Amino acid sequence: MEFTSLLDTSLDLNAKPALRIFDDAQILKEEVQSDFIQLGRNVAVKEERGALMEELKRVSAENIELTELLTVICENYNELRKQVTEYTSKNPALKRKAESSINNANTNHGINGSDKGSSSDEDSCKKPREEHLKTPISRVHVRTEASDLSLVVKDGYQWRKYGQKVTRGNPSPRAYFKCCFAPTCPVKKKVQRSIDDQSILVATYEGEHNHPQPSKLESTSGSNRCMTLGTAPTSVSSSRSTITLDLTKPKQTTDSARNSNRKIDSPEFKQYLVEQMASILTKDPNFKASLAAAISGKFLQQNKA
DNA sequence: CGGCTTTGACCTGCGC
DNA sequence: GCGCAGGTCAAAGCCG
């Protein structure tokens, strides 16, 4: 009886260290697993970051190419226009037809011509000729959602609507706006839906702003995704984002395009771009969800292996 | 209550 | 001179 109890005790004494080793091993295993999970996360984040940087590089390169292309288009357009002007001055009979063609080109391609002297029939029939020559007129086509029935073109300026009319030949009404940022600003804007495509708004700008663009400060703060390069806008936009380009002053435009090229190449700009991208991505819940899915997917994949 | 939009009335220029 | 169409005005209504 005493012997068996002694044996039990000795067995007990031997059993305790074995359990402790087992526990230690268990803890170690958990730690290793935890480290492994962390490692998996780090790898996933690194891969994601690498992919984003690649994407950023690609977009930057594309941006530079597009800027260069735009510069070339502007130069070609101005050269062609100059030739047309010279040609029509030598052939007055062709002048009217050529002016009409230029206006159509402006309208169709959204290139703002700062139309001093050349104008549509609609505009010319209403205003005295000399006044008309002084007033730059530009047209802008803006694509909107078909369901969006408002005649609002977001171009960075503040406008006050002062009238609306149904015009002949177009069932959709024409809205009349005045620039209300500065009381002395003479710029007016007419907005009407295109007859051909109801989803396209045709905005006609008359005059030049004599004040800075109110939304410029907002756009540089990074709170929106509007890219602004000038004052009087020619824009191609969707309901979600807007790209506004100043093509009213061809020389300035090409210079500014070159300047922007130089700026794009600079490390400061790249740094700014990265910060903006990071800011936009981190604010985007979809991105966060995608990142989480990628990490968890990677982790599950490694657990299987 | 102030600012903005709407909308009918009015003005102006052009063609016949 | 008249009619038409585009452009503007201004009172009323709406909204934050």
Automatic annotation (TrEMBL):
Task: Report the main location listed first in the record.
Answer: nucleus
Report the SMART domains cross-referenced here.
WRKY
Q: Where is the composition biased (Basic and acidic residues)?
A: 123-134
Locate the region Disordered. Answer: 91-139
| Database matches in InterPro entries | WRKY_dom (IPR003657), WRKY_dom_sf (IPR036576), WRKY_plant (IPR044810)
**Segments of skewed composition (Polar residues):** 100-111
Its recorded name reads WRKY domain-containing protein
